Amino acid sequence: MNSRHPEYLRETVSILGIPVNLLSRRQVVEQASNWMQQSQNDDGICRRIVTLNAEIAQMTLESPELAASIKQADLIVADGIGVKLASQIAGQPVPERVPGVELVELLAREAAAMGKGIYLLGAAPGVAEKAAEVLKTRIPALTVSGVKDGYFKAQDEETLLADINRARPGLLLVAMGVPKQELWLSANQTVLQVPVAMGVGGSFDVISGHKPRAPRLLQALGMEWAFRLIIEPRRLKRIIFLPKFIISVFLKRKVKEESN
Prior knowledge:
alpha/beta, two-stranded antiparallel ribbon, about 50% helix, globular
């Protein structure tokens, strides 16, 4: 994990080699808010937040590039129930899940309170714009500094980065899916003049209403994956990451115990 962390951010639990911060939702928001607030006094450093779920964690076992990218992040939080369960198996439980889709709105509220804008990058054409409209409705004081879908070409990347930096948002939200969004953010982290950046997966689809979120009861039970499987049966190949992930966690623990 990045060496720029304050001391308390170094309290982590290792999930398949990924250091997940032992922070509550409130603490995550406070830290991101501090980074946005400090942006006027630092040297333009961009801090990156990763919301880790079982699928992403399992993917790191097969992609050293993705694993390295995630480990470079400044904050890694437990998004899914699988990661929360894995932390319990590891003997260092995270305080709670921090779902990325909820973190988007919480951080947008912090940005608005500080008079800072947000930039939405990614998703299909029209989705980010709709998500921005919904966020503006929920947070009237929010400034949307820019919106761009995720279907830009490689030759347009330099112009895109210049546009983001010119807009000077307090928060950059990138919805390109994993691994693309994390690799893009880590590749451009030193170029981005944004206090806080976060990969948000399918959050724009949910916020915009393009895709429904699970009922609150299923959210509370950590069963959102089951709801997504019901409404999108084609996700079965992705959902199977959860049992594979738990098996990987137990195997990792067994190897660790045998080596001690």
